């Protein structure tokens, strides 16, 4: 057995070049790994902790750049947050409606979840003025999906391009409750409005066309919010003005990070990986269903419930993959895993079709265009569709120069593809992985043998 050579080089502009040279034969992946804490749950734990009364303790927080952005925004508004670590983070909450007006611009960095969820809270703080921004990727992402329903609630928000792009300025108001029928299945939209509803008298209802991740609903309930869920109509109603109380939150491993190892273990021959302590909330497990359709050998072991979220250990063994067709309601349950699913499809027999995933075009990058371009550079056959991709598997990949486009999930997806390419792959701007998975390269180095 001979291992791949994996090196990370820091460039003069501080960006990183990840260079992967797999051996021509004999590479396999073996071992037992833990992935970092779930990004969505980490954001919500910090935010609810900040606006609850009393102390919130968070175990297993993701120490990636995105939750760090959330922590610094809420510290700037008066929450006390102990040093960030995975063992135990303590948040001293300031109570409902008590966020202080920050003396500077709140910067959400690369994090759409930070900016969109926070907007709901800021818009509902009467008498305070806030300005929010983010990095160049976030400043180009659509904010009208939250600004418009917040305006229907009476929010005052200003920004470029008809108030649709950050930087945004917010004059907090007492809002009025609405029933919002969201045109897209988006947990960020739903959560933004639920958070706005917290400090709004009356019932705020959100109905989505398909169910998006429900971490906000679960955690809001645990913190004491009054919430009713109608699963038949994908609706959630929050009764405003209930005080939240600090809780102990245990953050499970992120299935979106585990997905890289699930696909790696499936496509690298003679591999077996166990990924421990992964969140398997049914609103997130679309990737397990899609990989099962493709014939992947993945077992869920030791299934349990931890602090209100289902958790399991996932065992993957390599197997021959076949194509699949996915679209519809499964897409919101695996939206962040589609770049790595595209990599699996490149190694599957037949043509995989992914539809109804136009949302990918407004993520940290245009993930349809970028994945198609980068995989095609390696010799894959990927056609862009307006709302997805058509991927014909079975052509061998060749290592080449690739770019992450500063998108964490693109950087990691390409790294997994390069394990099964002939020759050397160089991924530019690979430091993006630290947004959600700071130890990605270390873990990659550990599992190759
Ligand atoms: C997230 C929701 C998803 C997802 C994002 C995190 C969240 O976005 O893509 O990475 O934590 O609510 P949308 O809800 O906009 O689809």
TrEMBL record:
3-phosphoshikimate binds at residues 39-40, 44, 186, 188, 336, 363. Its EC number is 2.5.1.19. Transmembrane segments: none annotated. GO terms for cellular component: cytoplasm. GO terms for molecular function: 3-phosphoshikimate 1-carboxyvinyltransferase activity. The active site is at 336 (proton acceptor). Catalyzes the transfer of the enolpyruvyl moiety of phosphoenolpyruvate (PEP) to the 5-hydroxyl of shikimate-3-phosphate (S3P) to produce enolpyruvyl shikimate-3-phosphate and inorganic phosphate. This is 3-phosphoshikimate 1-carboxyvinyltransferase. It comes from Anabaenopsis elenkinii CCIBt3563. The gene is aroA.
